[in-house]
Input
Amino acid sequence: MPELRKDPIIGRWVIIATERFKRPSDFVSEPAEPSPGFCPFDEGNEDRTPPEIVAYRNPDTAPNTPGWTLRVVPNKFPALEVEGVLGKRGVGIYDQMNGIGAHEVIIETPKHETTLTALSLPHIRDVLWVYRERLIDLDQDNRLNYGMVFKNVGRVAGASLEHTHSQIIVLPITPRTVAAEMHGGKVFHDYRGRCIFCDMVLQEQDSGSRVVYDGDGFLAIEPYAARFPFETWILPKEHSSRYQDITTGGAEGLARCLRTVLLKLEVLLNMPPYNYIIHTTPFDLGPVPHYHWHIEIIPRLTKVAGFEWGTGFYINPLPPETAAEHLRQTNVET
Amino acid sequence: MPELRKDPIIGRWVIIATERFKRPSDFVSEPAEPSPGFCPFDEGNEDRTPPEIVAYRNPDTAPNTPGWTLRVVPNKFPALEVEGVLGKRGVGIYDQMNGIGAHEVIIETPKHETTLTALSLPHIRDVLWVYRERLIDLDQDNRLNYGMVFKNVGRVAGASLEHTHSQIIVLPITPRTVAAEMHGGKVFHDYRGRCIFCDMVLQEQDSGSRVVYDGDGFLAIEPYAARFPFETWILPKEHSSRYQDITTGGAEGLARCLRTVLLKLEVLLNMPPYNYIIHTTPFDLGPVPHYHWHIEIIPRLTKVAGFEWGTGFYINPLPPETAAEHLRQTNVET
Output
C-alpha cells in the first residue's frame, strides 16, 4: 500500500510508493522515449490493460473487445490503491495516511494516434465529456476529496506511452496549489465581491495583448504572470466553479478551443512535450462564487533550475505578450 | 529592465525577462551539455567575466588577475538588475514592479573542476563563508528582502557552465516557499512553543531510519515527506534561523557534512545532476525562534509530470528510508 505523507512544515502531501522496490541504478539512466513498438492502448489489445471502467463503444460489442472509440481503464501501475481505509495516523511530528485513491487512464482513441489534435472535434468533445463522467462517478466515494485530470505528452513531460491518453488521479486530500487558488479567490471575493477569474477574463479581453484565442464560450490566454514560455490557460468566459457542470454545448466549445490552442503550439513549437491539468473545486463543495475552473497547458521547453524548485519563484525568459502574439499569428484549421 | 509580476490568484511572483527578445525556435531545441571548451571561469580568463565583487586572493595580486582561490562576480546574464527603483504599480487586477535585485556568481576555484567535492575541506569552508559574506553585504540594500543561494550541477539541473560555481539571487520579495515555511514554523511554535525543525532533528536522530550523516554540528537526512528519490536536507543541530549567523567552526562542520553527502550521492548515483538551495530567513528579520535555516539537495533523477506541476503534489517512487539506507552504506572518504 502506498503512503500519503505530509511535510510537517508547509503541509505539502507526497505519495510515497512503497510497493515496488527500486534500486539506485533505476534512477541513473534516462528513461527512453515512449516506444513505438507494441502498444497496449491500440484496438485489439484490450486484454493488455486492466478491464475497462467505462467505454464509448458500439452497443453490439462486448466490454474489453474492439468496437470502441474511447476507453477508461484503471492505471496498470497506479500511484494509489482503490481498496482500503484511510487509516490516518501520526508518527511523532509527522502525519500520514494510507495511499487510498483512484488512478485511471483515458485511452482517447483506438487508433495509434500520438496527439489529441489528430482526433475530430466530436471525438475530442467525447474525451472532455468522459472527464466529466468520471469526476461525477468518483465524487460518490466518501473517502476521496479531489479529482485531478491531466495529460502528459512526450517523455520530458512524463509520458511513458505515446498513444494519446489522459489520466485522472483522485485523492483523499486537496492539492496545495488548488487550496491556495481557492483561498486567493475567496480573499478577493470577500474584498471586491467578484470572482477574480471573471475579472481576469474581462481584463484580458479588454487588453487583448495576451489573448491567444477567443472562441465560443472559452478564452485562451497567456497568463499575466506566466511561469513558462507559452504557458497557456483556457477559461470558461461565464462563471463556473466546477468542471463537472460543463454542458454538452460547453464541451463542444471547449473541444474547439483546446484543439485550436494545441494545434497552434504544435505548429509553432514543432510538437513540443507538454502537460495540461484541469483545475476545479474539491468534491465536497457545491458551486461557489469565488472559484472558476480552468485548464493550464504547460509546454516543457525550458529546464527548471534549483532556485525554481526551492522557492516556487520562476524566471520566464519570454514575455507572455510576445508568446501570445506568436500564437495568434500561427494559423491552424479547426 | 526585467519585470516582477505577481499572479493575482495565489500571489506567486515571476521574473519576466523583457530584455532579450527570443524567437520561438530558441525554445524548440534542447540546450547542449555545458561545453568543455573555453571556460570564462578558469584562472587567466578573469577579463571574460564582469569585474569581481569579492575575491579570496594572494594579497600581492591585483583584482581581476590570476592569484585567487575564489571569486564572486556579477552574473553576465542577470535575471535582475541592480540599478533603479522598485516602481511598484498596478495594472488593473495585476501587480508588478521593476526587476530590481542582485544576481551574482561564486566561482569556487580557479582550476577547471566540475564538482565541489574536488575541493579540499578548507576550500569548501571558504565557499560556504563567502555565501555568508555576500548575504551580509547585500542585506544592506533597503530595496532587497531575500537572498537565495543555490547551485545547479548538470544541464538537466539548469547549469550552463560545468566549472563548479554557485549563484546568489537577491530579491525585493520573499519567495512563496520560504514564506510558507516561515508561516508553518510560526503556527507550530505558537501551538507547541518549540521550533519544528529542532523537533525534526531530534525525532530523526532518535529514529535513525532517515539519517544519512550525523556529524559535527550538522545532520543530513532524507526528509519524511521527500518529494524526490534521494532528496536530502542538511540542518544545523542547534537552533539557528539565519545562515549569516554561521561561525567559522560551523562552516567547517558544514563543509564536512556537505562534502560527505555530495560524495555519497556522486558515488551511488554516478555523478547525478542536482540542485541545492539554502533556505534562510528574509533580510528584515532578526533571529527568530520559529525558523531554522537548512540546505535542500535535490538530485534531478526523475521527470516531473503534469500533475506535480499543476498541484504541488508529488509522487516519490522511492521511500526516503530506503534512500537513506543506500546512502549510509555508500562509503566515502572526507
